[in-house]
Amino acid sequence: MSNLIRDRSTASLPARIAEVRATPIALPVRRDWRWRGLEQQLGRWVLVRVETDDGAVGWGEATPLSDWGGDFGRYYGETPTTVVHVVEDLIAPALRGLDLWDDGSIAGHVATVIRGHPYARAAVEMALWDVRGRVAGQPVHQLLGGVVRTRVPIAHMLGLMPVDEAVAEARAAASDGLAAFQIKLAGHPSADVELVGAIRDAVGPEAVLRADVNQGYAQLSLKAAIAAVRSIAAAGADLVEQPVEGMTALAAVTAAVDVPIIADESCWNAADAVELATRRAADGISVYVAKAGGLRAAQRVAEIARSHGLPCDVNGSLESGIGTLASLQLAATCPAIVLPAVISCPAPAGADTTRHAGRYYEDDVLTEALQYEAGALIVPASPGLGVQVDEDKVKELTVGTAG
Questions:
Q1: 28 with 43: CB under 8 angstroms?
Q2: Which of 78, 82, 80, 102 is nearest to 91 (CA)?
Q3: In this structure, are residues 290 and 318 in contact, taking their beta carbons and an 8 Å threshold?
Q4: Looking at the structure, do residues 381 and 248 belong to the same domain, yes or no?
Q5: pLDDT of the residue at 14
Q6: Is 19 left (phi over 0), alpha (psi -120 to 50) or beta?
Q7: How far is CA 134 from the centre of its chain?
Q8: Looking at the structure, do residues 44 and 153 belong to the same domain, yes or no?
Q9: Could you tell me the residue range of the domain that residue 253 belongs to?
Q10: CB of 130 closer than 8 Å to CB of 118
Q11: Same domain, 317 and 200
Q12: Residues 164 and 74 both lie in one domain
């Protein structure tokens, strides 16, 4: 589908890429958010701004984490510094002057200057879809094939924190009408069981609890890992995300337990999705725009999952409003994305839609909050990604890339 957008609907919309810029920002966090293996502070992201020769502007976002990647180093971390370098020094010169609608040519030029770095590439592609939608007067989901849902249920992430704090955070999010939670586990079975049980008691039997181990049981023997997964399921987990490392171990756990297993670190792109489905290594897939390298690539992951009967969610790294909008546009187009999405519910300071559910930052770069309703975000129908970016706020939140 790489050149399909250059057809009858876009032939009368001439535009060329004039500028691609990357800006590192730091969002003010509501509290400290951590998970197993994460050492850096969240919210130090990079925004990408694409401008056409006639002044149309689109935005994308990268959420680079230096200490997070795929199984056994198969994929690797990115940082704000690497993203800015890749975008401004490599991708931007390759794209200037290209036809905005010639998706195949754009992809080819990017492939000639960079391999890997999916977060940086995804941010550029995200911005291109945003500006295309604004030029065409269409939401991104229409350009990507049409909408299958207009509301996306979200799950609130409970980061690593003491049990009493996690219980309080879960109750606060539930008071906003949210009924799904992702619980970050430390990888210590007895403590994990205590935490899952406490959250289950706090939010009741109807809430969906997804225990995310972030490969934490890889340190155990396979039999011990299987026993740990069974224990957290018995404590109240409805889904268990990435308990071990590698598809071989993941497949063994999936075959041995009754609780559904969701692959995250083990599945980044379409090739991984094919291998995972063929090996029956998981019962579902967590799809990221960033891990896949862009919206189109993420669609391919979800479509492969669908063809094998594997449900998906949209996941991320607690993006700002820009990245969240891209995730919503993706979820709107993919029938397989039926699990609650682990994404933010962003709002600028003073314009809160929720007090706790999906609220990881005190402020955002959007001019208005996304629409939240009964535990779900509403997919915007306005052109591009859907909401305007406050460029003055971007300047206010801009930081250097050191560190």
A1: yes
A2: 82
A3: no
A4: yes
A5: 74
A6: beta
A7: 22
A8: no
A9: 143-389
A10: no
A11: yes
A12: no
Q: CB of 300 within 8 A of CB of 125?
A: no
261 and 293 together in one domain: yes
Query: Are the beta carbons of 83 and 119 closer than 8 angstroms?
Result: yes
Extract the tokens encoding 391.
Answer: 């460029």
What's the pLDDT tens digit per position in 158-185?
Answer: 999 999 999 999 999 999 999 999 999 9
What stretches of 168-311 adopt beta strand conformation (E)? 180-184, 208-212, 239-241, 261-263, 284-287
Q: How many CB atoms lie within 10 A of CB 138?
A: 18
The residue whose two tokens read 């995300």 is 241
The answer to pTM > 0.90 is: yes
How far is the C-alpha of 86 from the C-alpha of 103, rounded, in Å?
A: 19
List the one residue out of 238, 307, 314, 317 whose CA is nearest residue 273. 307
What is the dihedral sign for C-alpha 130, 132, 137, 140?
negative
* Contacts for 96-100: CB closer than 8 Å, 24+ residues apart: 96/17, 96/18, 96/19, 96/20, 97/16, 97/17, 97/18, 98/16, 98/17, 99/6, 99/14, 99/15, 99/16, 100/15, 100/16, 100/17, 100/52, 100/128, 100/131, 100/132, 100/135
Number of domains comprising the chain: 2
Instruction: For residues 252 and 138, give the distance between their C-alpha atoms in angstroms, rounded to a whole number.
Output: 45
Instruction: Identify the CATH number of the domain in which residue 360 sits.
Output: 3.20.20.120
Q: Which residue has the higher pLDDT, 92 or 355?
A: 92
The neighbour count for residue 87, using CB atoms within 10 Å, is 27
219 plus 75 within the same structural domain: no
From CA 315, how far away is CA 340, in angstroms rounded? 9
Q: How many residues in total does the chain contain?
A: 403
